[in-house]
Amino acid sequence: MNIMATKPLILNGRSVAGEVLKNTVSEIELFKLQNKRIPGLAVILVGDNPASHTYVKNKEIATKNIGIYSEVHRLQEHTSENEVISLINSLNLNPKIDGILVQLPLPIHIKTEKVINSIDPDKDVDGLHPYNLGNLMRGQKTLTPCTPQGVIEILNHYSINISGLSAVIIGRSTLVGKPLSILLLEKNATVTIAHSKTDNIQEIARSADLLISAIGKPKLITKNWVKPNAIIIDVGINRIHENNASRLVGDVDYDNASSICQAITPVPGGVGPVTIAMLMANTLKAAQQRETKPANRGA
Ligand code: NAD
Known about the structure:
By secondary structure, the protein is of the alpha/beta class. Helix content is 40%, strand content 17%.
């Protein structure tokens, strides 16, 4: 890549997603011919979080567009933990279902860990079950969390070689920051994770050749946080209300930080669409793996 670029390269997540989905569709066609069935995804949504409803709707549309069977279970806010787990138990045994995704966050009376742990690891298309996270940690092929895998897909798509580079991830969640740190290590980056308790966070961010933000704070990251010519991946999705209108922005102040960086993902149109594409790819992968492990298939 040209490190002297004057305007940043826009890392277009819609293009990356389009390519992932194109490949997934042709593999689904082959899967159908070989196995006389289509891959299936079940999504569970508990409660009334408007952002979660939008994400689930987008996932449902994606499955329809690429020919994956889908079921969405929309449960009321007061649904008990046991009810959610017994639904998961039945989906674990359902032969039509290859992937189960529980939309997070769950209402506070439900323990996320208990729910995730009840998913059959072979159907854990969000890659959050301890079995899959453990495999990821050991560098073994496994179902990998969709958003971190999406970030890697963006880097690969644009042939950005991060071997030897300094990568700083801001945010240490199990959903994004922690698994992403492992994937970046696998690509030979030198990885630092910063978070809400990190001292001198701007200085640490400014040391990054690759700066990734997964915080959930609108436009927090300005050019003062960015090393000249850095590559920025903005995972954050935040809804803001300005001038009587509402819109989505990332954690990065895009216009401000663009003036100094080499490449940047926009919000919307960056990591978001790639995350959904990776979910489709993971559902197909889970279906393929189940066909080669018939003993694990449900009744
Ligand atoms: P989370 O709330 O679980 O974690 C947020 C992390 O940010 C924490 O580790 C916290 O320590 C850190 N943090 C919070 N405030 C900070 C500050 N002021 N300075 C430094 N660090 C701070 O969130 P999450 O689930 O990891 O999601 C993070 C963001 O990414 C959210 O905006 C979410 O909507 C978005 N997200 C996007 C996608 C996608 O597909 N693009 C997928 C998942 C999450």
